[in-house]
Prior knowledge:
Layout: E1 14-16, H1 21-30, E2 34-37, E3 52-55, E4 66-68, E5 75-78, H2 83-92, E6 95-96, H3 108-113, E7 130-136, E8 142-146, E9 164-170, E10 173-174, E11 177-187, H4 188-193, H5 195-199, E12 204-209, E13 215-225, H6 240-247, E14 251-252, E15 276-277, E16 297-304, H7 308-317, H8 319-322, E17 326-334, E18 348-355, H9 359-373, E19 379-380, H10 400-410, H11 419-424
Parallel strand pairs: 1-3, 2-3
Antiparallel strand pairs: 4-5, 5-9, 6-10, 7-8, 7-9, 11-13, 11-14, 11-15, 12-13, 12-17, 16-18, 16-19, 17-18
The protein binds flavin-adenine dinucleotide (FAD).
Amino acid sequence: MKNWAANLTYSSARTERPRNLAELTGVVAGEPRVRALGSRHSFCDVADTTGVHVQLDLLDDGRPALEVDPETGVASVRAGLRYGEVAADLHAEGRALAAMASLPHISVAGAVATGTHGSGDGTRSLAGDVVGVDLMTATGELLTLRRGDADFPGSVVALGALGVVTRVELATVPTFDVRQDVFTGLPWQALFENLDAVMGSAYSVSVFTSWYEPDVRMVWCKSRVSTGSAGGAASTTSGPAADLLTRLGARPAVGPMHPLPDVAAVACTEQGGVPGPWFERLPHFRMDFTPSLGEELQSEYLLPRTAGPDAVRAVRALGDRIGPLLLTSEIRTIAGDDQWLSTTPEDSLAFHFTWKQDWPAVRAALPELEAALLPLGARPHWGKLFTVPVADLPGLYPRFGDFAELAGRLDPTGKFRGGYVAELLAG
Ligand SMILES: Cc1cc2nc3c(=O)[nH]c(=O)nc-3n(C[C@H](O)[C@H](O)[C@H](O)COP(=O)(O)OP(=O)(O)OC[C@H]3O[C@@H](n4cnc5c(N)ncnc54)[C@H](O)[C@@H]3O)c2cc1C
């Protein structure tokens, strides 16, 4: 079996898709090596095992797929569901997630296990909005960990190393509507000098570039609008994002745009300022379309927000080197959270790279990118491709020792270790 991008063939002997908790317990307790596999969207071997993979997409744990607590708004969801499968039902209950990743097809448990995030100065990673997990540990017992429990900060961004998460509790907010506007041609100098203002010009902002073009290719602005605007006609481009970006020299896009140049935007969520519910605007791609054939590779580095202007200049200086290898690249922002293995422990800037699927060329370029970004405090995304030695990763996380102790306590035989996570926890 291969991952989504087909750049990795898993080493597992077989894959089990248990239909109930008893079947899951049988696999987890009975096998010496097990690893949960989500929707296979990671580009590296973070989810790999030489033992048995378990996928939870068919798992019925005896409770409704989605339960919303009317008092707290906390949504309890089956962990194997994809975010896009949860979102519409949540909206129907009058609730929303504060953020979504670019793709709604990614599983909830798999996304939060690697610190997956969207964009927005005020929105945390998807893991940062988790308030509880049900975890099947090595013996097959179910353990519930909630915000406030001593081990909780180790239990969400956990790389599959603690066990199999069967349910996830998500903090929600009242549902809201969003309009998406795209701007093109922002001059580089304007971005250098106004990075924080550009990234803060809407609820969620993404800057797309290939770093060697004469100007910044696109800025996607997702702005909250008053609830109930959905279903209305396209509004004229106006508001804080448009005011700022046009003043800085950008222009409203003349039609719908795809993140990749010269690709039709049919798979993208609606643009052009048409208001719609949060889950149909915050992801870049629509749930009912396959966004691409997967012929790409991804890397991503997350840095403290304070390093942002230096980091943008440093990557731009590498534009001629990395630009020809890129399909596109994206700058995003994320608010900090308190997970021990969080790549965004403080307000952060993310540099995402979608590469052509040429691993030898990308692998040769990554050390140069990492040499520019690591001194500025960068951490590689746990689910993407990087060349930082695995042995150096613990040094990037002050609470790594606490995480390793928790993993050793819950999984003393290392049943849930595989791929590079085995090496990470070996030291
Ligand atoms: C097209 C595309 C777009 C993407 N967009 C974004 C984005 O916008 N933002 C971003 O940050 N990342 C993004 N990613 C990266 C992606 O979100 C992460 O790699 C994520 O971890 C993939 O989740 P998955 O369900 O596919 O998990 P997998 O890749 O299958 O597994 C990832 C990890 O989760 C663990 N895991 C899975 N299920 C469970 C479970 N039930 N219990 C315990 N552990 C589990 C696995 O063991 C493994 O360690 C994107 C990837 C692709 C291919």
